[in-house]
From TrEMBL:
It is found in: Cell membrane. Keywords: Cell membrane, Membrane, Transmembrane, Transmembrane helix. Residues 114-241, 250-390 form the EamA domain. It comes from the Eukaryota. This is Drug metabolite transporter superfamily. Belongs to the drug/metabolite transporter (DMT) superfamily. Plant drug/metabolite exporter (P-DME) (TC 2.A.7.4) family. It is a multi-pass membrane protein. SUPFAM superfamilies: Multidrug resistance efflux transporter EmrE. Transmembrane segments: none annotated. It comes from Tetraselmis sp. GSL018. Pfam families: EamA (PF00892). GO terms for cellular component: plasma membrane.
Amino acid sequence: MSSSMSLCRHTPCSPYSCTINSIPFHRVPTPTKSGEFFFSAGQPGCIQMTTISNTKFPRPSISINALKQNEVSVDRTVPAVQTEETTGDLHTSDISEPKSTGGLSMGAFQGSTKGLILLNIGAILFGTNNTVIKAAEDSCPPALLSAVRFSMAAVCFAPWIVEGVKNKEVRKSATELGLWLFAGYLAQAVGLSSTTASHGALTGTFTVLIVPMLVGFSGRSVPTSTWVAAVVALLGVGLLTTSDTTPNAGDAWCILSAVLFGTHKFRSESVTKAMEDSTQQLMALQLAVLAGSSCIAAGFEVFGSSEGLQQGLATLQEVPLPSLVYMGVASTALTLWIEMESLKEVSAPIAALIYSSEPLYGAGFAYAFLGDRWGPQGWVGAFLIVAACLASQLAESLRASRTET
């Protein structure tokens, strides 16, 4: 058996992982038939898997046969049964079904279904964000509001922050991702100070174009359907944005925030897949970086103004506590966890397209609570965004079904 065998193919993901000949095979698929082969793309190795079931393993398990050296070490996130059988160059290790990794895992869902559900929930939560921020910024400086918001979110994951600091790779990746988030949220806050909440939500959909572009520039293939859906979604955004007023500087800042958020999403996909057993630590530590950066920015804003700290705290007290808690916990901590978890199973371009429905939720909340309105042209744009989002998810599901069969 070699890596060039035609039987080697990439099949749907499952939570199994293993390391063979020091080559990591992440998200090894559950075999659908005896003797199926799995080839880890980009890695010089091929493994054979067969399903087994006996008295010792009452439930179906996976038998992984690795060639070349008598070495199979199971990733520490997978419970292994160390019953080994060595014959020449062939080593067999029986791996039982994985247990829950704890925390916020959703083991009841499998494959991309879980990721798609989470991303749609995240889109709704993100949709509420601009309305809440816009209302709060009427009485509080943006940087100070961000510092409180992100500090509150970081506190929710304090235990994992301590664990993440001990891991060099987690520290490095979390610092990068946290700074991308800080830049994105800062641009968003500046933009919302001079544009409407609905415009802020709508222009944020430019993420759906940025992510496929970054993926394409990295050398990976992007399905044509993804590009078409991205263009349609952006056309819808254009119609919505220009349906009532002329675009202004605030719109430009919100578009910049979309570029920065898209870069974060693109980088998060590769980082989370490479650090699947450290997702919570990665998420918590980048929240800490985000909170720290926001506090530094707030310091410059507060102490650099004539009003000073006392006036800044006075304005902060005018923001309702439920709004602060919601921004910190629901629309920040929870949505970031959703993104980290879902990108293990859903590609970044598809995730960006699903998030293209966020402006509709955002505009809906702005319509209900802030009085924002749009005309017929805006409704046409809204329809195009919904159509693009649904089409992308349908195409992804069909591709997954064809792969399974």
